[in-house]
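retry 2 of 3: previous attempt timed out while embedding zinc ion. Reduced batch size to 1 and resubmitted. Inputs unchanged:
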Amino acid sequence: MPSHRDIAEMLFELANYMEIDGENPYRANAYRRAGQAVEHLKRPLEEIKEDLQSVAGIGKGTAAVIREIIETGESSLLNEYREKLPKGLMSLLELPGLGPKSVKTLYKKLNVTNVSELEQAIRRQQVRTLPGFGAKSEAKLLEAIQRAGTRPERLPLGHVRPVAEEVLTQIQSIPEVVQASLAGSIRRMEETVKDVDIVVATEQPDHVAREVASLPAVEEVVNRGTTKVSVLVAADWLVQVDVRIVTPEQYATALHHFTGSKEHNVRIRQIAKEKGWKVSEYGVEQLADGRTLTFDEETHFYNELGLPYIPPELRQGKGETEVGLEQGLPDLVAEKDIRGDLHVHSQWSDGHCTIREMAEAAKSKGYEYVAVTDHSRSLVIAGGLSVEDLMKQREEIERVNRELDGITVLAGVEVDILPDGRLDYPDDVLEQLDVVIASVHSAFGQDERTMTKRILRAVENPYVHVIAHPTGRLLNRRDSYALNLPEIFKRAADTGTVLELNANPNRLDLNDRHLRQAVEDYGVTIAINTDAHRAEHLHLITYGVGTARRGWLTRHHILNTLTLDKLVKRLKGKNHGS
Ligand code: DGT
Ligand code: CA
Ligand code: ZN
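retry 2 succeeded.
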């Protein structure tokens, strides 16, 4: 059944189409209002399906459309509009500065139906002559189009890795392929990647090169040799995949070489040189007798150099070889160590799933617990909960806990840290919750002093357990806010406040460098959370764990590797100052 959000999005789309088509704006607005009403509805739709008109904002016409969507998953009215009007009109609405009214003008007066036609019309200076537009808005639109149309140099790992894994699976199913692995930045779990590297072992390079060039995932072949094939595949943008083809004997050293990083490889070559060896992608050449050593696996290669196996996430040239030689490497946290997720949203605020659906998904991931942490009241755009709703939600959480075995749902909240550092709920409300996470969603532009004081105030609050996405950065979209992080690390450690590693691939906040500093220099505890807004997003924990490993974290640094009993004790501990 479609979620509240899905239905609301269909109603918004309908409203936009109506307005662009020249329908009475009041009618279009009725659909917009109904969309908002559905989005903020707390009760399950099944319960009120027959009684939709009793909800403020839903009228007779919109109720019929909603009922049709609940029953069939579709709206025949929306389908008609989708047939009638060009699809590109909806992508025009995504440009900043363009609403349905201006899209209607562009469409009716200039027959502009998509972004590239808009760009042409601007270049012909036709747009400035329209009512409601001018030379200035033309220039702004052009800039927005250009920004939207160029691929950023580096793409977030989480947008590329699923496609890379798909290509890898296709390569592994070529019968002549002996072994294959991801390499490069994607194997090192870097937060952004320029391209995908794959290393393949085979005795039949010509044949495998041809097969790789014609894989289903391939959109275009850039270059096809017998040792390297470069192709383009589609992620958000076209991404290049460099496939290196080597013999089975060369595989371990080639995989090591193409995994990098460059800085790590430099250190490895230095260590080899001291022993009179020369490392290349083909093996280790012993300069004394010209013999070349090859290896079954990377571990043996490292051991030959006197090193323990170095996990790809640590291969950054930041001390991993020295520490490996001298005292051995830490036992990095792994996905299997994670026992629960402490930051997920439900339909009660801006999530797509019910509490029960989130709990079932957590259970099938093998978790012991999941904390439902919906937004607090001031975050109106995300359906923030009033105190009264929060109490009603609590009842639903308790019901789900009675209904389901093998998973515990913790009652939590993601409370806004208001611009002056106060929290969006009073302490006597926060006190009643199992997990309180606090975060900044407004006034991002404050200066460093103000922002630092604001967050410190939340850190000092005895009822705040976790500060979520502490720097607020969004990859390729928004920088961190101005913040004195060391000061926050210090107070967090002193007060026992946990800092989040938000695993959403667009956030990864704290990042790998911050994590290492927070843990090594200040002794901060970290929680790795997905901030999932739907059940399928719980798997994003992979990116959090990868980032934690890049930050040298072990399970002992991480809150949600604790068993439920220990977790609950630890959370209660903060309020009692222990
Ligand atoms: P990226 O693609 O910018 O996200 O990062 P990487 O590390 O995947 O870089 P890439 O694709 O240029 O090369 C993959 C690996 O191959 C790199 O980590 C180390 C090795 N490699 C490539 N070119 C060189 C080079 O010129 N010198 C050395 N030492 N290693 C290289
Ligand atoms: Ca690469
Ligand atoms: Zn959240």
